[in-house]
Design goal:
By secondary structure, this protein is an alpha+beta fold. 42% of the residues lie in helices and 21% in strands.
Length: 148
Amino acid sequence: MDDSAYEAAQLIAGERLPALAVFAADGRPVTVLPASDVLRAVIPGPILEDPSLAGVIDEQGAEACADELGRKRVRDLIRPERHRVELAVVDGDDTVVECAATMARLRSPLLVVTDPADRHRVLGLLTASRLLAALLERLPAPTQPTTK
């Protein structure tokens, strides 16, 4: 929560992540920070309201937008509690289908995988693209429709 918003943005961009899981100081998972919310923090409010204004910002203006992230913490980018993306948490022994079902139901771009014996111990994170790849690996290729 107290990490630099700029560093969070760099991680999302550098690793091409759809989101980050946000943790409290004690290591407890709190919420999801979607990449789109980081973008919202970079783009000035008037442009969010009227995207046609984006054409009037030059490269220096874009740099000023990015500088705004340097003054913020991750907590500043988190949606108010009532509008947060619910953090999807699964046990490390859940199946791929169970994980995918949880992610789909919560519409979360990532899952936090915890130790089944200690839900506060995080084992890792799964992205939607990784889960989809795991599901597709297990499915036979569909038959192609025949054309006449």
